[in-house]
Design goal:
By secondary structure, this protein is of the alpha/beta class. Helix content is 43%, strand content 16%. The chain has helices spanning 46-59, 71-87, 120-128, 149-165, 177-181, 187-202, 250-257, 261-266, 284-295, 311-319, 327-346, 350-360, 367-398; strands spanning 2-5, 9-12, 17-25, 28-36, 62-65, 69-70, 96-98, 101-102, 111-115, 135-140, 170-175, 207-213, 240-244. Strands 1, 2, 3, 4, 5, 7, 9, 10, 11, 12 and 13 form an 11-stranded mixed β-sheet that branches. Strands 6-8 form a two-stranded parallel sheet. β3 and β4 (28-36) form a beta hairpin. The radius of gyration is 22 Å and the shape is globular. 45% of the residues are buried.
Length: 411
């Protein structure tokens, strides 16, 4: 079976650009699009190669690229393949690559950008490189569904406010990339880094360097979609992609950014966004961040969490991640350990310290507690499964289309 990346088409005016290309995998052609709030986008095929390559590694025997592509990226596709085949040989396999190399020339007068979601990792990288990073990039269609217009508007308002306060122009990119390829690969485990890289490649006429914030520290690295060994391999002669922040744990990152007023006004970490909430305050990511903020004495000053931290939930939710080998779990556990050590040394907040220690000891993973937690999780999983099935049916009904993607729709 072949995977084919077709030649891109660019439509632009003086403020916006839309770039589309047909991508054929498993006998079906999907029209992938990027909409950008700038006319300065790449006309090359590289963004679409990055978007299509990992899905192709799961199902195709041949990967064909219909326009010349960066010679550097073409060479690196072999190394990317080696990583994924090594990490998950049961899912990924080598493909024959049919592409024509071309040396991409760098544009003059370009600057440095950082991807920015308003979360802990991206704030840490931004504030760490504040003097170097001149622009911020925000993507809709990644962690916010394209059809969730209310949440998208709320988050864009906050991200724009943060960018303005920090004096960084914001570029907004919208893409249907996940609608096209989520069925092939896991977003966090495999695909998030390639997707981010596709946007960096799209904006290569503007930037010679783009920072991608690390989600895990060096101590807890395991195979993951965004990884310090992987992200730089998506670079071309024109743009260097840098995976940044592995030197710090999440607790250390929270401590580094907690005194920033713009962080206190706009921090966004939520995974679930229940009922369109900016931060729901009850998912694992929210609980984890709230616990770390409280450990450094900053939770009450962060205005994007509108409910108190439930300490029983901290111990209850964290316990299962003590024995889980996944990247988020190992990252959470390391940060819990750092927070507990900090509280023990300072003598502050014994109630939070007890909750963290209960979580680290997996207190609620044993005996009747484990039975009760398991029953609760099964009920929760059933509800989530029902919701996901409804969303899959909705996405399938909508299809993967670029209709009505006028440049003026990007704001």
């Amino acid at each position: 079976m072949h995977a084919v990346v077709g030649s891109p088409v660019v439509i632009r005016d003086n403020k916006f650009a839309v770039v589309t290309a047909p991508i054929t995998i498993d006998g079906r052609t999907r029209e992938l699009y990027f909409k950008a709030s700038t006319p300065f986008v790449s006309e090359g095929i590289e963004p679409f190669v990055a978007a299509a390559f990992l899905p192709a590694l799961t199902i195709a025997s041949r990967f064909a690229v219909e326009a010349p592509m960066s010679a550097r990226l073409l060479r690196n596709l072999q190394r990317i393949t080696e990583l994924f085949v090594c990490w998950e040989p049961e899912r990924f396999h080598s493909v024959e690559i049919d592409a024509t190399p071309a040396e991409r020339t760098a544009h003059s007068g370009r600057t440095t950008a950082g991807f920015f979601s308003g979360g802990v990792d991206s704030f840490y990288t931004l504030l760490k490189h504040r003097d170097e990073i001149t622009h911020l990039i925000f993507v809709t269609g990644f962690d916010i569904r394209l059809d969730d217009e209310r949440l998208q508007a709320d988050v864009l308002t906050a991200v724009r406010a943060a960018a303005a306060e920090l004096g960084k122009p914001l570029i907004v990119v919208e893409t249907n990339l996940r609608q096209c390829f989520d069925s092939f690969v896991s977003w966090p485990d495999h695909y998030c880094g390639a997707a981010i890289a596709s946007v960096a490649l799209l904006l290569s006429p503007l930037f010679h360097t783009v920072y991608v914030a690390a989600s895990a520290g060096y101590k807890v690295l395991v195979p993951f979609g965004s990884h310090p060994l992987l992200d730089p391999l998506w670079s071309t002669e024109a743009v260097q992609i840098i995976h940044d922040g592995c030197e710090a744990s999440r607790f250390q990152k929270v401590g580094a950014i907690a005194q920033s007023e713009v962080v206190r006004k706009t921090l966004r970490v939520c995974w679930h966004n229940t009922d369109g909430a900016y931060n729901c305050g009850s998912c694992l990511k929210c609980l984890h961040t709230m616990a770390l903020l409280r450990a450094v004495g900053a939770l009450e000053s962060v205005r994007t969490f509108d409910r108190p931290l439930p300490l029983r939930s901290v111990a209850w939710e964290f316990g299962g991640h003590v024995i889980d080998p996944a990247v988020p779990s190992r990252n959470f556990v390391l940060s819990m350990e750092h927070a507990a050590d900090h509280l023990a040394a300072s003598g502050r907040d014994p109630a939070l310290l007890k909750a963290l220690r209960n979580g680290l000891a997996a207190k609620y993973e044993r005996g009747m507690w484990a039975f009760a937690k398991g029953a609760r999780q099964r009920i929760k999983t059933y509800g989530q499964s029902m919701l996901q099935n409804r969303m899959r049916r909705r996405v399938a009904a909508q299809g993967c289309s670029s209709k009505n993607h006028a440049p003026t729709e990007v704001s």
